[in-house]
Amino acid sequence: MPIVICPTCGEDEDLSGSRRDDAILLTCGSCGHEWDRDTRLVCRLCGSEDIEGVPTSTLEEAGRAGVRTPSGIRLVYYCWKCRGNDVTSTAPQVGPNPPPGRSQDLRAFRGRSS
């Protein structure tokens, strides 16, 4: 399932974009249509913008002598409204799920109100 498609012709491969403020200006190479793609994070389950990226694991790669070294952190986005997990991916998990990170009360821990 493509994440971005042209709203005019349905093209999903021949697309180009350039960043501008809080959006990306996309251009379809097939039909020439231009439109803005919002870069704000939105829950794919309920449409809420009340989501938070929670680090769930450290990405590693092989270093010297086979020792694993950190190369990044994987974030999973949790929706506080519908309690869905991984809500910005193409396969969000319907809630109610506890927040990632093994904390049943992550919002209270971070000082956020319900």
Structural features, described:
The chain is mainly beta. It has two domains: 39 residues, no CATH class; 59 residues, no CATH class. Helix content is 4%, strand content 36%. The protein is built from one helix and five strands, in the order βββββα. The strands form two sheets. A three-stranded antiparallel beta sheet has the order 1-2-3, with no helix packed on it. A two-stranded antiparallel ribbon has the order 4-5. Strand 2 and strand 3 form a beta hairpin. The mean pLDDT is 78.
- What structural category arises from helix and sheet content? mainly beta
Main beta-sheet strand count, sense and barrel state: 3 strands, antiparallel
| Strand element count | 5
Q: List the quaternary state of the chains.
A: single chain
Low-confidence stretches: none
User: H/E element string?
Assistant: EEEEEH
Radius of gyration: 18 Å
Mean pLDDT: 78
Query: How much strand content do the residues show?
Result: 35-45%
Helix content: under 10%
Shape: extended
Distance between the termini: 33 Å
Strands across the major sheet, in which order? 1-2-3
Helix tally?
1
Number of domains: 2
